[in-house]
């Protein structure tokens, strides 16, 4: 929608605009804090930067061209939605970079969506729609914290059993750390069989695990441990 402004117009740099930027910062920082506390990517700083930047972009679209009014004879038509549309496109590319495909599994979709959401919250705050911005922020916590519990209850998920074949450097105290990471991730260890690999400095750990979660996050967490050489999900492991 194209808006026509008269000659006497505000500069858009008052306390109202500063309050809108501050609101965008607070709300999107809360979203980022939730992501950080859960060990996800795009945490506090990223979400806050996206939210505040989106709010500022929208304010530039609304107020950034008022100095052209006298040059155009006191009558100017601007379309703030153009800037908003470009922000949405740009954040879409940013979110796409957070999505990871590993072992035929897709990770990072919720984090990517949260960046897009932070941009929307920031734009709503920048547009003065503070109530909508606050409500969407509250709904973020309902979605990320509450819907998982509801989903588990409705689907009545049974614990899954998996076998892992972990190869790691021996003599670095990794066995205890690996088992700790597994239990911290919500899995229980049914069987653990550490084995030496003859002729090498490596060790092999065969694990039988039980847990309700997807295996991709567990495998990624173990693979990222310093000293771990490989982590494979196997159907029928050998325990030679």
Automatic annotation (TrEMBL):
Pfam families: MgtC (PF02308)
Location within or outside the cell: Cell membrane
Start and end residues of each MgtC/SapB/SrpB/YhiD N-terminal domain: 21-151
Main location class: membrane
InterPro entries per record: MgtC/SapB/SrpB/YhiD_fam, MgtC_SapB_SrpB_YhiD_N
Transmembrane regions listed in the UniProt entry: 15-33, 45-63, 83-100, 121-150
GO cellular component assignments: plasma membrane
Keywords of this entry: Cell membrane, Membrane, Transmembrane, Transmembrane helix
UniProt family annotation: Belongs to the MgtC/SapB family.
Protein name as annotated: MgtC/SapB family protein
Origin species: Acidipropionibacterium jensenii
């Amino acid at each position: 929608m194209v808006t026509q402004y008269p000659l006497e117009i505000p500069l858009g740099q008052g306390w109202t605009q500063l309050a809108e930027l501050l609101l965008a910062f607070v709300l999107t920082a809360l979203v980022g804090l939730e992501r950080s506390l859960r060990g996800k990517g795009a945490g506090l700083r990223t979400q806050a930067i996206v939210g505040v930047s989106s709010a500022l972009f929208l304010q530039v679209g609304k107020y950034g061209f008022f100095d052209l009014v006298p040059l155009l004879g006191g009558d100017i038509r601007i379309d703030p939605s153009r800037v908003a549309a470009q922000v949405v496109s740009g954040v879409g590319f940013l979110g796409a970079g957070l999505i990871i495909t590993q072992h035929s599994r897709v990770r990072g979709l919720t984090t990517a969506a949260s960046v897009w959401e932070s941009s929307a919250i920031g734009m709503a705050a920048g547009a003065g729609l503070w109530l909508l911005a606050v409500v969407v922020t509250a709904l973020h916590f309902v979605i990320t914290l509450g819907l998982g519990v509801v989903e588990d209850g409705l689907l009545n998920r049974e614990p899954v059993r998996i076998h892992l074949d972990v190869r790691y450097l021996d003599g670095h105290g990794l066995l205890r750390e690996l088992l700790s990471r597994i239990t911290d991730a919500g899995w229980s260890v049914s069987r653990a069989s550490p084995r030496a690999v003859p002729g090498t400095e490596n060790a092999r750990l065969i694990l039988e695990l039980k847990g309700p979660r997807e295996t991709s996050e567990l495998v990624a967490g173990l693979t990222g441990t310093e000293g771990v050489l490989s982590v494979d999900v196997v159907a029928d492991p050998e325990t030679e």
